[in-house]
Design goal:
heterodimer; A: 308 residues; alpha/beta; Rossmann fold; 8-stranded mixed sheet; 4-stranded antiparallel sheet; 24% strand; globular; B: 334 residues; mainly alpha; MetI-like fold
């Protein structure tokens, strides 16, 4: 349904061209739920906005949506797809909603744009959407401005807004950011239940990824380092970075990898980007490893075969 | 309107009232606490020396006339009492009540300022928004470039340039003044406009060069904001993004600064009024300074303070009408 073939995104900056997303390939099937795990700066948000043609970066490679190439699509054509076929749930922050527009109107906006709904119809639908997302007195909240919402409410508003026009693919950017545990579970439950909607979700919340994902990809320094079915991945990750992530979970004693991911400017080197922090690094790591296929899984590590 | 609102707006109004009271008191004490007899400052050094020796009885009369007799407290009470009735005293130069003088000049100044401010506001919003929306384009470079050049020229320089070009070289504009006098009806209106065009044009340009970058940066910021990305991701078309999401958000800081400008502009156009011999508030203050006309100067200071306070009040009210966050007294908590 959505197929990325070697997608790179680059931006010109004063210090030269940076490439926060480097040759990412992945596929989301109809109704499938794919979770992309990556830390801040790994390029995951840029990847999502690039799929919508909104990152402003230069895209190379192919983005196929229902066998149609999206990369380089004219803006007016792209706008017809956004919010209708491919919906987006932005990162949950105070700035993600227009502070001067009432919530109901913002939620209903996709219906006005794509379905030619009147303002009144859109508002009524927005109220319904809020009701379905467990808002008490949705009519009241639809008339409020965003600053009155709590973080959890805002999250639900963003979900309502993203799903109101009934897209076939939902892109979600860190949907559990800033939420407490109860809310996170609630969001996970909700994300498993969108009927007939495929999901591509980026997060650094491993618990959430486990609860929602059918397939998992791990993004490190702009590259996918591992893609695997969720169960197999959480059972036994193959890439050393993925292993270190799993080890950093509370039940494994918070043991995270030493050091920090390289910055965008330092991607240029030839070797494996994780080698510096990798406990298993060896002689081969001076050369950049390709994604190696192991059955259903792909791993970007020269030594992955041995650890399987 | 909740109790919270009452407290916040009440507090704001109180601050404004205190500001006016403070300036009024400053006026009062400044003259009395300067070294020497306050009368000396009021009538001027030479006249004062002459009167002390030749006509002390005249000085005593003046003391009563200016409320300088009695204890300091009595004087202060009388002063505030007169103020409350709108009595700002008389001009030392011609005996005209200061308030009458000021109101007349204020009207003339507004005749110059209002069209300039309205025009600079409207054009500033349109040009600034265009530059910000198409930031980095050729249009943006032209608009921003020209506005920066004008911005870096002081207002009086711009006025002199205007005079040189339109008055001396082209002969299109009068050298100054408000009207030619002796005209009525349509001829008067035409003549008044003719006199107004150049100074108002110069003022418009200099305010415009301030408004354009202000609006531009507001639009640029709103264009790159997360909520604009959200709107785009919903499939909202460009024009709608601009008018429903970007412009309203860019307008908030614009409204705040623009209305506050109004108060400052009344006093800030002194150079321009002097240059074009426009007999308004600025020129009144200028002449009062040169002529040691203390009552007029004090009255002007007070009235200008009131203008600034009123424009701040207007700014508060407009921003609150426009932005629900300001109504609720909250800003982004991140």
């Amino acid at each position: 349904m959505l197929k990325l073939e070697s997608v790179s995104v680059s931006f010109p900056t004063a210090g030269g061209v940076i490439q926060p997303v480097d040759k990412v390939s992945l596929e989301v099937e109809k109704g499938g739920r794919h979770v992309l795990i990556g830390e801040t700066g790994s390029g995951k948000s840029v990847l999502l906005t690039s799929l919508l043609g909104l990152s402003g970066g230069e895209i190379t490679g192919h983005i196929f949506w229902k066998n149609r190439e999206l990369a380089g699509l004219p803006e007016t054509e792209y706008a017809k797809i956004r919010g209708r076929e491919i919906a987006y749930i932005p990162q949950n922050g105070a700035g993600s909603l227009n502070p001067l527009m009432k919530i109901g109107r913002q939620i209903g906006e996709p219906l006005q744009v794509h379905r030619g709904a009147s303002r009144k119809e859109a508002l009524a639908a927005a109220v319904e959407a809020l009701r379905e997302l467990d808002f008490q007195s949705p009519e009241y909240w639809a008339r409020q401005y965003p600053h009155r919402l709590s973080g959890g409410m805002r999250q639900r508003v963003l979900v309502a807004m993203g799903t109101i026009a009934g897209g076939e693919l939902l892109l979600a950017d860190e949907p559990t950011k800033g939420l407490d545990t109860d809310r996170r579970e609630e969001v996970a439950r909700r994300f498993r239940q969108f009927p007939g909607t495929a999901l591509l979700c980026v997060t650094h919340d491993l618990e959430f990824a486990r609860a929602v994902g059918e397939r998992i990809s791990v993004l490190y320094a702009g590259q996918i380092v591992e893609t695997a079915p969720a169960a197999a991945f959480f059972d036994a990750p193959l890439h050393p970075y993925a292993k270190s992530m799993i080890r950093s979970l509370p039940e494994h004693g918070f043991q995270s990898a030493k050091g920090f991911a390289p910055s965008h400017r330092d991607y240029g080197g030839l070797g494996c980007r994780f080698a510096e922090r990798c406990p298993e690094a060896g002689d081969a790591c001076g050369k950049s490893p390709p994604l190696l296929q192991f059955g259903e899984r792909q791993v970007r590590c020269w030594y992955a075969a041995g650890s399987e | 309107m909740s109790g919270n609102h009452v407290i916040r707006y009440g507090g704001r109004l109180l601050v404004y009232a205190l500001t006016i009271w403070f300036v009024a008191s400053f006026n009062f004490f400044l003259i009395r606490f300067m070294p020497g007899d306050p009368l000396e400052h009021l009538v001027g050094e030479e006249d004062y020396l002459y009167l002390t020796t030749a006509h002390p009885e005249v000085l005593a009369e003046l003391e009563t006339a200016y409320g300088l007799d009695g204890s300091l407290f009595q004087q202060y009470r009388t002063y505030l009492f007169h103020l409350a009735r709108g009595d700002l005293g008389q001009s030392y130069k011609n005996g005209v009540p200061v308030l009458t003088l000021i109101l007349q000049r204020l009207a003339r100044t507004f005749r110059l300022i209002l069209p300039a401010v309205v025009l600079a506001g409207a054009l500033g919003i349109v040009l600034g928004a265009a530059a910000g929306w198409k930031a980095g384009s050729r249009l943006d470079r032209w608009i921003s470039g020209i506005s920066l050049v004008i911005y870096s020229i002081p207002g009086y320089c711009l006025g002199m340039l205007g005079l040189m070009i339109f008055c001396f070289w082209l002969g299109w504009a009068p050298t100054g003044g408000i009207s030619s006098g002796g005209l009525t009806g349509a001829a008067y209106a035409k003549d008044a406009l003719w006199h107004m065009a150049l100074p108002a044009g110069v003022l418009t340009l200099s305010k415009l060069s301030y408004n354009i970058p202000l609006m531009r940066s507001g639009v640029l910021e709103a264009r790159e904001a997360d909520y604009t990305l959200t709107a785009r991701a919903k499939g909202v078309r460009s024009a709608q993004i601009l008018f429903c999401h970007v412009l309203p958000n860019a307008a908030v800081p614009m409204i705040a600064v623009y209305t506050m400008q109004l108060g400052l502009i009344v006093s800030g156009s002194m150079m321009l009024e002097r240059l074009f011999n426009w007999d308004g508030m600025g020129l009144l203050v200028y002449k009062a300074i040169n002529g040691n006309d203390y009552p007029v100067l004090q009255g002007s200071l007070l009235v200008l303070t009131v203008c600034v306070v009123l424009s701040n009040l207007l700014s508060d009210v407009l921003c609150a009408l426009f932005d629900p966050r300001i109504r609720d007294g909250v800003w982004d908590e991140g």
